[in-house]
Write a structure and sequence with these properties.
- With 453 residues, this protein is an alpha/beta fold.
- Helix content is 30%, strand content 16%.
- Strands 1, 2, 3, 4, 5, 6, 7 and 8 form an eight-stranded mixed β-sheet that branches. It has a three-stranded antiparallel β-sheet with strand order 12-9-13. A two-stranded antiparallel sheet has the order 10-11.
- The radius of gyration is 24 Å and the shape is globular.
- The termini are far apart.
- 48% of the residues are buried.
Length: 453
């Protein structure tokens, strides 16, 4: 008992209950049993008592007395956590739904197996469609080593982002970060987060020369952090410090996608935006497909069923997600196709704003918007999403959510929003009645990942 007390004091726990709640390294001890093994950083969010059978081990590796005699009492939300994990596992979004160590597999595949873009076995992690002319011009100045190790399904880099602090999830070799560094200018910052040491090393070693010599900035506005996109705040960035989060075919590689989205929401300032491309499926995949390491590394077996993705977004706070563009990804390899059955895959670019005023449905308050024609490379019309395109100078009726997006974000300088929203006229009729906020599935297919404001 004395050793148990001392161990708990060393770990900052006054009793076994707080010990579990604190998720300390020496989480639980019992009698002469040894402290539990250190909890890996990637798993540190799960209370040790959520799985008492593995929480505490004695020297022989056998399960010791659980840290709590009643796990549900130790961690009141343990039952709810188990239910959530079970649900996520069914959707292919929880670590328990994979038979391999996801993070280790991704590190091995992108850090060692792949040496260049040409080593990929499918087209999922390659850009679909040419980026805007401004981006193509900037890419010419990006170091060859950076571009040769680029793996992504699009170019999710808005153009008019001067002065914004940008965060790139799963930045890899840093190609998109280098382009963004030029677009935001010397007074803003671009941060890339990636868990693969080899990729971070490649990205960082060219940053000073590129910013100070190629761009002519007095300081380097580009940095790279080795870390997990599931652990963004505060490990990688401070809460509320980011104006724009971009990501290029990375979230599908995460075993905890909802946690990634929650971290993004926390990292963004009010009015900030998530703008990213990724791979999605038209159905939930079989266990055999989800557990194929090659398909996972190629961004296929981790692809989320689109309705599941939208539900995750709503749960973390992104209540109105807009689809910007999509294109279909073809899997032609016969062996891989056999695992996937009739499933179809798409590269989709989404945007979502952190705005407290947004509603889960699109409502008509008699508002309209006029595009000024001032966005870079878009003098004649601006596309917000697959539903709303604004020809320059034309008055376009909009729902209240869209009005907030145009008036309370980085898009504000390019639009005039009309109407005071004093009167509610019911559901916004220009959107199909069956489509809630965040559902643009009724729009016609458009080329994906071709850039936007």
């Amino acid at each position: 008992r004395e050793r148990e007390r001392e161990s708990r004091e060393m770990s900052g726990c006054s009793d076994s209950t707080s010990c579990c709640a604190a998720k300390a390294t020496a989480c639980c001890t019992s009698g002469d049993k040894a402290p539990a093994a250190a909890v890996p950083a990637a798993a540190s969010t799960a209370p040790c008592c959520a799985d008492p059978a593995t929480c505490c081990k004695d020297d022989s590796g056998s399960a010791a007395t659980p840290c709590c005699a009643d796990p549900a009492a130790c961690c009141p939300d343990v039952d709810q956590k188990k239910k959530s994990a079970s649900s996520a596992s069914d959707k292919g979004g929880d670590p328990s739904s994979f038979s391999f160590a996801v993070h280790d597999s991704v590190k091995e595949y992108y850090g060692k197996t792949l040496q260049k873009t040409g080593d990929l076995k499918t087209s999922a992690c390659t850009a679909a469609g040419a980026p805007p002319a401004a981006v193509r011009k900037l890419l010419q100045g990006v170091p060859d080593e950076i571009t040769s190790k680029f793996y992504g399904c699009g170019t999710p880099i808005p153009l008019d982002i001067a002065g914004l602090n940008v965060l790139d999830l799963g930045s890899g070799s840093g190609r998109d970060c280098y382009v963004a560094a030029a677009l935001v200018g010397p007074q803003a910052t671009v941060t890339g987060v990636d868990m693969t040491p080899e990729q971070v090393q490649v990205a960082q070693q060219h940053a000073d020369r590129y910013c100070q010599q190629t761009l002519g900035f007095q300081r380097t506005n580009l940095k790279f952090v080795q870390g997990l996109i599931e652990e963004l705040v505060p490990q990688c960035v401070e809460a509320g410090s980011t104006d724009l989060v971009v990501s290029n075919c990375v979230v599908n590689l995460s075993p905890a996608k909802e946690k990634v989205l929650a971290g993004v929401f926390a990292a963004l300032r009010e009015g900030g935006e998530l703008y990213f491309s990724d791979v999605y499926a038209d159905r939930r995949l079989s266990a055999a497909a989800r557990n194929d390491e090659l398909l996972f590394g190629e961004c296929i077996s981790g692809a989320l069923y689109i309705p599941d993705f939208l539900e995750y977004c709503r749960r973390v706070g992104f209540v109105d997600v807009r689809e910007v563009s999509r294109s279909e990804i073809k899997v032609t390899d016969k062996k891989l196709r056999a695992l996937l059955g009739e499933a179809r895959f798409f590269s989709i670019t989404y945007r979502a704003f952190k705005l407290a005023a947004l509603e889960p449905t699109r409502e008509d308050y008699g508002q309209a918007a006029v595009y000024k024609g001032t966005a870079q490379e878009q003098p004649f019309a601006f596309q917000l999403d697959r539903h709303f395109t604004f020809p320059t100078g034309k008055i376009i009726p909009v729902d209240r959510n869209t009005a907030h997006m145009l008036a309370s974000t980085r898009l504000q300088p390019h639009f005039t929003v009309l109407g005071d929203a004093a009167t509610h006229y019911g559901p916004f009729r220009d959107v199909p009645a069956s489509a809630p906020a965040g559902d643009d599935s009724s729009a016609a297919a458009m080329p994906s990942c071709c850039g936007s404001l």
